[in-house]
From TrEMBL:
<feature type="binding site">
    <location>
        <position position="79"/>
    </location>
    <ligand>
        <name>Zn(2+)</name>
    </ligand>
</feature>
<keyword id="KW-0862">Zinc</keyword>
<protein>
    <recommendedName>
        <fullName>Peptide methionine sulfoxide reductase MsrB</fullName>
        <ecNumber>1.8.4.12</ecNumber>
    </recommendedName>
</protein>
<feature type="domain" description="MsrB">
    <location>
        <begin position="40"/>
        <end position="162"/>
    </location>
</feature>
<keyword id="KW-0560">Oxidoreductase</keyword>
<dbReference type="GO" id="GO:0030091">
    <property type="term" value="P:protein repair"/>
</dbReference>
<dbReference type="Pfam" id="PF01641">
    <property type="entry name" value="SelR"/>
</dbReference>
<dbReference type="GO" id="GO:0008270">
    <property type="term" value="F:zinc ion binding"/>
</dbReference>
<dbReference type="GO" id="GO:0005737">
    <property type="term" value="C:cytoplasm"/>
</dbReference>
<feature type="binding site">
    <location>
        <position position="128"/>
    </location>
    <ligand>
        <name>Zn(2+)</name>
    </ligand>
</feature>
<dbReference type="GO" id="GO:0033743">
    <property type="term" value="F:peptide-methionine (R)-S-oxide reductase activity"/>
</dbReference>
<feature type="binding site">
    <location>
        <position position="82"/>
    </location>
    <ligand>
        <name>Zn(2+)</name>
    </ligand>
</feature>
<feature type="binding site">
    <location>
        <position position="131"/>
    </location>
    <ligand>
        <name>Zn(2+)</name>
    </ligand>
</feature>
<dbReference type="InterPro" id="IPR002579">
    <property type="entry name" value="Met_Sox_Rdtase_MsrB_dom"/>
</dbReference>
<feature type="active site" description="Nucleophile">
    <location>
        <position position="151"/>
    </location>
</feature>
<comment type="similarity">
    <text>Belongs to the MsrB Met sulfoxide reductase family.</text>
</comment>
<dbReference type="InterPro" id="IPR011057">
    <property type="entry name" value="Mss4-like_sf"/>
</dbReference>
């Protein structure tokens, strides 16, 4: 009985590792051609470790950790990796989630949405169309006029104040 349980656990662990490696390989091989393309080493050189984790490895920063969450200034939020304009301060709202939230992109041509099935959920991932950087996720529980909530990692954004 103990051997059967041990084999089941080992089999489960190997299955998880195999699935994880297949997902990683699939995401690496299915990436779209981007206007900004860099090697992993170049991204690591250009980004902070936290930015690299979020933008390139699809991580998530801790809620309420970004100063951009409380930013009330007028301006434009750009991709921290490639400086592409993404969201206007005019569409930013307080969602209470701990991450900067917007109800619509500045230009839909600059953002891309993909199905994200990680962590046992089905969500819509938001990416920078120019460099492919992971920004966060979009949900359908936002305010009018769109009803959308683009819940973004502050570390994946930079703020350019209005001049």
């Amino acid at each position: 009985m103990k051997i059967t349980r041990m084999l089941a656990v080992v089999s489960l662990c190997l299955g998880i590792i195999s699935c994880s490696q297949a997902q990683k390989k699939s995401s690496e091989t299915s990436s779209k051609p981007r206007q900004v393309q860099k090697t992993e080493a170049e991204w690591k050189k250009d980004l902070t470790p936290q930015q690299f984790y979020v933008l390139r490895e699809k991580g998530t920063e801790r809620p309420f950790s970004s100063p951009l969450n409380a930013n009330k200034k007028k301006g434009t939020y750009v991709c921290a990796a490639c400086q592409t304009p993404l969201f206007s301060s005019d569409t930013k709202f307080e969602s209470g989630t701990g991450w900067p939230s917007f109800y619509k992109p500045l230009n839909t041509k600059n953002v891309e949405e993909e199905v994200d099935k990680t962590l046992g959920m089905v969500r819509t991932e938001v990416l920078c169309r120019v460099c492919g950087g992971h920004l966060g996720h979009v949900f359908d529980d936002g305010p009018a006029p769109t009803g959308l909530r683009y819940c973004l990692n502050g570390v994946s954004l930079a703020f350019k104040p209005k001049e």
